Amino acid sequence: MRPMRVTADHPFDLLLHVERHCLEAARKAGSGSQIASRGSGLLAIRLRERLFTMPLAVIESIESVPKYTKVPGVRRWLLGIANLRGVVITISDVSAFLFGDIRPPQPASRLIVAAHEDWQYGLLVDEVIGLRRFETAPVETDLDLDDERLRRYVDQRRRVGRHMWLGLDLHTLLRDQKFQNAALSSSLSSD
Known about the structure:
By secondary structure, this protein is an alpha+beta fold. Helix content is 24%, strand content 34%.
């Protein structure tokens, strides 16, 4: 496991750091199955009016929205690029990618830096709610989502009280050709 940089920009960075180290220590001690059976921690976020969870395994850090430079000739959901501690990353508005509407970042908006195949991606979300554990909430994997746009990227859901938490499959999102190819072209429909 790569060491994670913990910044003072957001208190959840420290929690993510502690969570990863605890899971790694438990794995090394041979108690990984016990932790998995209790339910693993997930990062809870909001995208527009919907609640989502993200796996911690691919999250490098949570940042305030940095200043970014717009890039011409790309889809509207790819907001631009930014220099984050010496690493140039793309800034993609996940809500705009999933739902199509573009809104400016709000005070609660955060940038989740996710790692996938030696690349880091800046994923703008509407709000980071915090770390959540869902030990007692049954996982539903047989999904019949009413929103066609979400079917490809949601791999599970959990009902907790009156709230439905959708599990965002970051691996599928970050591997998706539509997400990978943000350049405007005639072969892909415009977003």
